[in-house]
Amino acid sequence: MSSGWLTALTTNPLLKGRVEIVGLVDLAPGLAAQRAAEFGLVSAQTGTDLNAMLDGTRPDLVFDVVIPAARAGVVETGLAHGCHVLSEKPMATSIAEGRALIEAARKAGKVHAVVQNRRFIAGVRRIRALIESGALGELTALHCDFFIGAHFGGFREEMEHVLLVDMAIHTLDAARFMAGKTPLSVYCEETNPKGSWYRHGAAANAIFSFADDVVFTYRGSWVAEGANTSWEGAWRIIGTKGTLTWDGGEVLEAKVVAGAEGFLRDVEPIAIPEARERARIEGHASVIADFLDAIEAGRPPETASADNINSLAMVFAAIESARTGRRVPIQT
Questions:
Q1: What are the structural domains of the chain?
Q2: Is cis: bond before 90, omega within 30 of 0?
Q3: 3-class DSSP string for 148-190
Q4: What is the CA 139 to chain-centroid distance, rounded?
Q5: Is 289 left (phi over 0), alpha (psi -120 to 50) or beta?
Q6: pLDDT tens digit sequence for 183-197
Q7: What is the pTM of this model?
Q8: Fewer Cβ within 10 Å of end Cβ, the chain: N or C?
């Protein structure tokens, strides 16, 4: 993950000249130095102690790219040193921990935000624009299929609820963003299918209820070999006038009813708005740019932790539903 962040920071035009990387920290001796050399960061200090690095370099920002279990400590340390912090997802390992981080940022008077980079791709922003335009009528449902046989190795293979915590957070956040609706409750079943190379929870099926009677369904697996979807999933968005489909890549199609007679009504294609701002569709670079812009403008970034906790709540409610076999309200 640090490679993706550093690539965005050092090569993307959105960020050119905006950030000077003064230090890299990793618990594994030599790994930070290896990354610095890989990206030509000849003036960056490297080490294994975050407190010492922050004391020595006195930076404005901390980029938190650690495993979820270490996140709270890194964020709290960064805030305590007067730094704004941008974290990998998920923002916390529990809702209580998430609330504590939001409060810590408030008390420090600093910005804490989360890398929900899927919001910053063209397809997601185009779907949001089409829904907002009313061309599909009133939104009634969103459906997403996510099926990939992903062989990461490393910490993910030992995580509990690995799909919901480490991947579904992207899809759930995207659904909440597209719909512009508040998630209210969820029923979820979680499994670890035969042949899984993960210890726990590599597949899940969930039905979310959003405000205004909007339904969102999620079907996902990280051990589905043979017919991978896009990393963004395959989507169907339904309104009272028509439907949009998206393959998670370049293919978006929308059709609306064009006739008032017949068992199956005639339909016609409609145009899908282009993403309005190129600067908003660059993935990691756009999240970082929005974070920097927000700090400079004194406004919350789009993925501020105070908002992102609503997506985190969807994840933990789904986990609770899978554990209890009951529909669970979504609360932050």
A1: 2-117+285-303 (3.40.50.720), 118-276+310-329 (3.30.360.10)
A2: yes
A3: CECCCCHHHHHCCCHHHHHHHHHHHHHHHHHHCCCEEEEEEEE
A4: 22
A5: alpha
A6: 999 999 999 999 999
A7: 0.91
A8: N
